[in-house]
Request: fold
Amino acid sequence: MNLIYEIGTDWSTIMKTRKRETKKKSQSVGRPREFIEEDVLDNVMSLFWKQGYEGTGLSHILAATGLAKGSLYKAFQSKHNLYLKSLERYEVVHVDAAVKALRSNESPIKRLDDFLSAPINDALTGRENKGCFLCNASADRADIDIETSQHVKRSFKKLGQALSLVVSDIKLDWTKDQIDQAAQMLLSVYSGLRIMSRSGVDIDTLKASKAGALSLIVNDT
Amino acid sequence: MNLIYEIGTDWSTIMKTRKRETKKKSQSVGRPREFIEEDVLDNVMSLFWKQGYEGTGLSHILAATGLAKGSLYKAFQSKHNLYLKSLERYEVVHVDAAVKALRSNESPIKRLDDFLSAPINDALTGRENKGCFLCNASADRADIDIETSQHVKRSFKKLGQALSLVVSDIKLDWTKDQIDQAAQMLLSVYSGLRIMSRSGVDIDTLKASKAGALSLIVNDT
DNA sequence: CTTAATATAGACCATTTAGTCCACAATTCA
DNA sequence: TGAATTGTGGACTAAATGGTCTATATTAAG
Reply:
């Protein structure tokens, strides 16, 4: 009915002329971006993290980022791609941070304690309770989207390896298998805590879980 | 444009006459149902379990059940209600079965081993890999839907209590706290296994997790 | 200033969504 | 038989969905 695209002229032909090979500097040829990609991804990640893929509509994304559809799609191509970029961003921002914390110069037991305390502290402070994006994505998309599952697996692997290192710092006499088993157990407990805290399981139950897990590593020997 | 509802007459007035107080026998007054509620819920549960709430459309539900919209909505009122009913059905069919298995007359260690082996065996056989509906629902809906979270919490509690009983059968000298901590740890590991298996984490990693968890209970003393 | 290149805003669209409504079918009861 | 009651099928709808397209704005280079 109401068309408003008839005023201008001869555009598409002009557009298809050349495609200059500029080496993507931060200050490039045309009109500059009015947003920072990382900031947008942080906002979008938060939405997907909290609401899942199908639960997050373009409308939410546009509202949270303040971008218009045109800009969003020019920069990120599709909702699906935006989801994958969010997972990458999560790995860089949150997984790598957790790995770094697991490799800090605190005592190894303190590092494990902190690792398992994070879900509990988040549940205590209440606000949001997003859980863990990896866990949520695993439940949400990993079974139907190979790219998602690959990202998630890679991040889980990073965490598992970092945990193995910490355990090996405590249990100097354990075999590699024993160490890896304990580390994977800790990672499972972490995931379980993140999942159960989403449904509001009471704090004492979560704390018991953590205590049970740590008792394997902290006790005796 | 094309209206076809003009042939009949005087319906709504007739409908609003009386509302007989029949004590819901299985053979009631009007036209009988052409489906069994439990069968429909089993199908629908499977969809929500696999695809989540937003990921499951009415179209999927209609296709899977073979029902027409009218029948579906007359029986179940809304998609949301259908989801809650699916969770209830899951509790009755799957959670209670797991609890029963945990209370079987197998050796307590075998019962724990079986409990943690289920996620691994499901991952091994490949087909589907739905994970655990409680865990998925927790990630998917529990944070925004109180009714969902209540169902999920109740089911988790049942599992936790059953696990405590099994642990107490093994560790006769442990305190109640020790027992509960171990049980909650096992439940977290179970949840973690279910979640991680959704993203296709390799079987050996899952097995390591299980071994780590069981080593706390099986070893020494 | 002109031209090329890129970004923005938002109108627009095809499809899908959950949900409603009613003509009609099938049953029970009197 | 006929009234009352309940279930069925599916046409229909309003709103929302993800995605496209283009007029225009803004920059750099020549």
Observations:
- Confidence is low (pLDDT under 50) at residues 1-25 of chain B.
- Residues 4-8, 11-12, 27-32, 57-59, 69-70, 73, 78-79 of chain B lie near DNA strand C (CB under 10 Å from a C1').
- The CA atoms of residues 42 and 93 of chain B lie 9 Å apart.
